Amino acid sequence: MKLNEHLRNHRTGFILLFILICLWGTALEAQVPSGGKKISDELLGLFFEDINYAADGGIYAEMVQNRSFEYDPTEQQGWNPFSFWEYMEPGYSYGRISVETSDPVHGNNPHYMVVDAEFIGNYEEHEGKSGVGIKNLGFDGMVVNAGDTYNFSVFLKQLSNAPVTLDISLQGTDGTVLAENKIQSTSKDWKKYTTTLVPSQSRDTTHLVILATTKGKFAMDVVSLFPEKTFKNRPNGLRADMAQLLADMEPKFVRFPGGCLVHGDGLHNMYRWKNTIGPIEQRVEQRNIWGYHQTAGLGYFEYFQFCEDIGAKPLPVVPAGVSCQNSGGTWRIGGKGQRALPMDEMDEYIQEVLDLIEWANGPATSEWGSKRAAAGHPEPFNLEYVGIGNEDKMTPEFEERFTMLYQAVKQKHPEITVIGTVGPFLEGEDFEKGWEISNKLQLPMVDEHYYIEPDWYLGNQERYDTYDRKKAQVYLGEYASWGNKLYNAIAEAVHLTAIERNGDVVKMASYAPLLAKKGHTQWSTDMVFFDNTTLCPTPNFYVQKLFMKNSGDHYYDNVINFSKKDTTLAASTVMDSKTGDVIIKMVNAGKVPKSMEVNLSKFKNRVSNAKLTVLTGDPEAENTFDNPDNIVPVTEEYGVDKKFMYSAPAMSLSVIRIKTKT
Fold first, then answer.
1. Which residues make beta-bridge pairs with 212?
2. Residues of the signal sequence (predicted)?
């Protein structure tokens, strides 16, 4: 009797709790004024491609260049397995080095270096270390900070009878030893050895030196040096300042690993996700389509982990079974280089794509979920989107293979949203054919790309107004206005107000490319430029950040009044139903200040104290490494009434964030 009464009391409590939750949800929803339009709550994110040394030498924190001796002349003329390494024999020592392939650490990592320290010259006349070894120059040098810890690792195999003692050091360009430690080979099989280095001085150009100080012969591979202070202190992690800069943007998603990098320069160069997971010594390195080398150290696990760390949804893009139509440089003759996987290989490739979804979302007990768990992430990554294809030529071969992939994913994983592609331009044959394929297959979303002059953005604010809401939603995966001056950024801000207005049909949007290293750019229009010590966000970056951090999930027309005939003006009003905040964005791409009338009467519970952030300046102004803060937004307190006039400065983006009472 007591047990039944106890259960009844608990059941009554649960019912009351459920009712309260429903009423609370209804109350929250009631705070959203009528007349608005529900828009995507994951509208703005990041697109990452390993272009402009964005990964190796960039956000991937590995400090050793050519760590596995896999560089070759097909990547850049003159490159070879010895590139970015220098042979050393201080103290009148002598020996020899060679690169061999007969017994590698792993078949996916075929090259390794053999060092034969024949004689160590311990002469009194020599000051400093004596030995035989090699020095790595890093990516334009290595930056170290005094007192910080740097984690060194290497795979060694002893080839002589006696163990070999290795002196591991960080040295300045003048030979000053900043940090050193010792390891000793002990195994005739490949074995990983680790140590730490703590520099006594800070230097922005440092080299890693590996010196055999006792006689002997050994093989080595996968020579690695990482700062302990990576983003979130992840091993095999990301450069902390750069990753934090992106995290602070609060992107809703991250698309990776490309771009043209995905479909590759020929079939052999397609980006295969399985080659990028597991221990780094087992990953497959290859030529980067942009003319350098990719270690795959920043692989699928690291991409997914970064997304999770910053609260962004992962959006991987896989090849559609065809290579880039410009493979082999055929862009010079009209892009005739597309090659398609043979049909007898398609079943295996389709399974590869299905395996990706299992790897990301499957239980730790599944075949591919267990590999994710083995890497340290037993919980699923909660993948929702998969892009198939990138800017592909809409050939019959493409259509056939894309259709096979789409139908297989749809059948096996209906919970996954597949994003198709409609070519590299905003119109034309591939664009029209891509949409034709989308309509025939009833795709849920397609990926549009366009790079175009800034004036186009001002004159085409209505682009998505007339899109058919019954057809596929749009992911604007790549766009930019061919420049990093303030005028370019403000033109993109105009476009983003139109994107917000059409946030019911445009599901996602991401500027491209994201990162570019000074002296190593293959693409001049980028969001953030960097070198080994400095980050240089562009005005375009600040526009993107202001829109990302001030996004909403409801859009309201007729809040801001201005002359619609003036194409230099644009505005949008959104509300974030989670916070109740109302966000107004006003853009003036003109050369003089212009007035806009704001009417907030539909937002009943607003407070009068708001935040105003303005990005403005000379339209020709840029941020540079000498002056990275030339153009930055400024935030101040701002009072708002139910109705007020706002004078938008010339060449500006203004964001007013208004809180409402709960």
1. 132, 166
2. none
Q: What are phi and psi of 326, to 5 degrees?
A: -100, 15
46, 443, 405, 395 alpha-carbon torsion, rounded to 10°: -90
Rg of the chain taking only CA atoms, in angstroms: 28
Kindly list the catalytic residues.
391
Task: Report d(CA 166, CA 183) in Å as an integer.
Answer: 5
For the chain, the straight-line distance linking the first and the last C-alpha, in angstroms and rounded, comes to 45
pLDDT on residue 7 = 38
Q: What is the token pair recorded at 22?
A: 């429903």
Would you state the structure tokens that stand for residue 603, as one six-digit string?
A: 């937002």
DSSP state of 337: -
CA distances 298 to 29, 460, 583, Å, are: 42, 38, 36
Main-chain dihedrals φ then ψ at residue 601, nearest 5 degrees: -60, -25
CA distances from 407 to 348, 354, 418, 437, 448 (A): 15, 11, 10, 13, 21
In degrees rounded to 5, what are phi and psi of residue 539?
-55, -35
What's the predicted TM-score (pTM) here?
0.94
With pLDDT > 70 as the criterion, what percentage of the chain qualifies? 95
Residues in the chain with pLDDT values less than 70: 1-30, 662
SS3 446: strand
For residues 168 and 183, give the distance between their C-alpha atoms in angstroms, rounded to a whole number: 8
pLDDT in tens, 432-457: 999 999 999 999 999 999 999 999 99
Three-class DSSP labels, 584-630? EEEEECCCCCEEEEEECCCCCCECCEEEEEEEECCCCCCCCCCCCCC
Check residue 443 and report its DSSP letter: -
Cα–Cα dist 493/499, whole Å: 10
Strand ranges in 465-523 using DSSP code E only, listed in sequence order: 473-480, 506-509, 515-517
Tell me the three state secondary structure of residue 508. Answer: strand
Q: Residue holding tokens 């600040």?
A: 542
Q: How would you write 202-232 as a 3-class SS string?
A: CEEEEEEEEEECCCEEEEEEEEEEEECCEHH
436's enclosing H/E stretch is: helix 429-441
pLDDT score recorded for residue 125: 87
Could you tell me if 571 and 653 are in contact, meaning their C-beta atoms sit under 8 angstroms apart? no
Select from 91, 80, 95 the least CA-distant residue to 218: 95
Contact 404, 433 (CB under 8 A): no
Write down the pLDDT at residue 72: 96
Q: To 5 degrees, how large is the angle CA 620–CA 625–CA 630?
A: 45
Bridge partners for 529 per DSSP = 516, 536
* pLDDT, position 6: 45
H or E stretch covering 367? helix 367-374
Number of Cβ atoms within 10 Å of the Cβ of 292: 20
Half-sphere exposure (Cβ direction) of 535: Cα atoms closer than 13 Å: 18
How far, in Å, are 275, 526, 560, 598, 629 from residue 537 at the CA level? 32, 9, 30, 31, 8
Q: How far apart are CA 503 and CA 37, in angstroms?
A: 9
One-letter identity of residue 474: V
| CA distances in angstroms from 584 to 135, 250, 552, listed in the order given | 55, 18, 10
Amino acid letter at 471? Answer: K
Specify whether the CB–CB gap between 537 and 573 falls below 8 A. Answer: no
Q: How far apart are CA 172 and CA 240, in angstroms?
A: 23
- Pairing outcome for strands 535-537 and 528-530: antiparallel
Write down the pLDDT at residue 87. 98
Q: Which two tokens stand for residue 110?
A: 């075929």
Report pLDDT digits (tens) over 210-248. Answer: 999 999 999 999 999 999 999 999 999 999 999 999 999
Q: SS3 string of 298-331?
A: CCHHHHHHHHHHHCCEEEEEECCCECCCCHHHHH
- The pLDDT score that the predictor gives to residue 625 is 97
Tokens for 192, please give them. 């990983």
